[in-house]
Design goal:
single chain, mainly alpha, 6 helices, transmembrane helix
């Protein structure tokens, strides 16, 4: 059942974002920022944690989950380091995910010989 919940919740998030892109004049970059900020706000309010317990990867993989990860990292770092944690917490919390995305993206570009379109 965990896989089913992850599938339909992740699909619903993606469908809502696609509807938002199709029905408004918001640019994709702004929608991405909206998702990250929404994840951080939902995490700060305490709604996102129970949501991730229910949906698993369906809630943590989209950009909402990235915003929540940034929030949790900042909260932890602020508790440990005070004001300075506001600037360092997000980086330490998401460093592994961002590093993996960069490394695997680079490896994929080597394997598939990507080229710029003209």
């Amino acid at each position: 059942m965990d896989y089913v919940n992850a599938f339909w919740v992740g699909g619903a998030i993606c469908a809502l974002v696609q509807i938002l892109l199709d029905k408004t004049k918001l640019l994709p970059g702004r929608v991405m920022v909206l998702l990250v900020c929404s994840g951080a706000v939902l995490g700060a309010v305490g709604i996102y944690e129970p949501f991730t317990k229910f949906a698993g990867a369906g809630a943590t993989v989209p950009l909402l989950g990235f915003g929540n990860t940034l929030w949790k990292g900042m909260k932890t770092a602020i508790d440990e380091s005070g004001f300075l944690g506001l600037f360092t917490g997000g980086f330490t919390a998401c460093a592994a995910g961002v590093s993996a995305a960069l490394i695997f993206g680079y490896l994929a570009s080597l394997i598939f010989h990507s080229k710029m379109r003209k």
